[in-house]
C-alpha cells in the first residue's frame, strides 16, 4: 500500500448551486439513465408521425396528425428536461447554495469513511459502499443506492481516488 492510502485523507465539501445541479444531472442521466424513457417516447411519437406523414398522399388530412405527433414527440421530452433542471435549481436555492459553502468534511481512511457535518457524524465502511464515480470536478461516493457524498476537486483528490481504487472492487468504481 502506498503512503497516501495509509493515512486519512480529508476532503471538505464546499458546494454551490452549480455543483448541486451537476450532481443531480449526473445522478439522473448517467447513473440512473433516466434519459431512456423520454428518448423512447420521442422515437415512438416520431415513428407514428412518420407513418402519418407517409400516408399524406393517400389522405391529405394525415398531415395534421403527423405534425401533432411530431411536435408532441419533440416538445414533451424537452419540457420534461427543463422542468427537471428547474426543480434542481429550486432545490439548490432552498438549500441556500447560491455561493460555495462548507457542507461537510469527508475523511477517507483504509478502514472506513467518516463524514462530519457540524456536530453530526456518520461512519461508513468500505465493504458497504455501493459505488464510486469520478466525474469532471468531483468524485461521487455512493454509500447506498440513494445516498452519495460529493468529494469536490481538492489538493488530495488524486490520493482520494487512488485510495478508492485500491479499496473497492473494480465493478464498484467508474470514471
Concise summary:
The chain has 175 residues and is of the alpha+beta class. The protein has 5 helices and 8 strands; from the N terminus they run αβαααββββββαβ.
Description of the structure:
It is elongated, with a radius of gyration of 22 Å. The chain has 175 residues and is α+β, with helices and mostly antiparallel strands. It is built from five helices and eight strands, in the order αβαααββββββαβ. The relative contact order is 0.19. Helix content is 46%, strand content 26%. Strands 1-2-3-4 form a four-stranded antiparallel β-sheet. Helix 3 (36-54) runs antiparallel to helix 4 (63-94). The protein folds into two domains: 3-15 and 100-174, Roll (PH-domain like); 27-94.
Rg from Cα:
22 Å
Sheet having the most strands: 4 strands, antiparallel
CATH architecture of the largest domain: Roll
CATH T-level topology of the largest domain? PH-domain like
Structural class: alpha+beta
Fraction of residues in β-strands: 25-35%
Distance between the termini: 22 Å
Uncertain stretches of 5 or more adjacent residues: 1-5
In which order are the strands of the major sheet placed? 1-2-3-4
Assigned CATH superfamily of the largest domain: Pleckstrin-homology domain (PH domain)/Phosphotyrosine-binding domain (PTB)
How much helical structure, as a percent, in the residues?
40-55%
**How much is the average pLDDT?**
94
Overall 3D form: elongated
Q: Count helical runs.
A: 5
Which CATH first-tier class of the largest domain would you pick? Answer: Mainly Beta
Number of strands: 8
